[in-house]
Amino acid sequence: MEKAKSYALKLLSKKDYFEAEIKQKLSQKGFSKEEIEETVLYLKKHGFIDDDKLLERYREVAVQKGKSSIYLKRKLFSKGIYAELSYEEELKSAINLLENKYRGEKEFYNIVKFLKNRGFSYSVIQEAANKFLNGE
């Protein structure tokens, strides 16, 4: 049990992990299911892993960087988490992306193509393009 705890803490000292990721890492290292469950319980109890806080941080970073809901869903799915951006978060993300990265002509068609290629839904694309072109 102590080896599992120290290994988990070593992992967490480098970066944050979701509970599912920690379980997978410990399992790959050869620890028993009981050791893994006890270790995860210990980590949760002492606040070393908190899936809700980490998920919120992933969402904030995705919005700041202008990532689509599809991108976030795919990234989190690979980590064993099922979540996506809300409509408002995805819209804010699309607008951030346009303001920071879009350098093309300010035509509706070009903006739609730019956002569509990055995985945004059409309803978000339409609203973000209109706000961007109207300077809102």
TrEMBL record:
Family annotation (InterPro entries): RecX_HTH_1st (IPR053926), Regulatory_RecX (IPR003783), WH-like_DNA-bd_sf (IPR036388)
Predominant location: cytoplasm
Source organism, top-level taxon: Bacteria
Pfam family, one: RecX_HTH1
Subcellular location: Cytoplasm
Function: Modulates RecA activity.
Protein name: Regulatory protein RecX
Species whose genome carries this gene: Persephonella atlantica
Lineage per the UniProt record: Bacteria, Pseudomonadati, Aquificota, Aquificia, Aquificales
Record gene name: recX
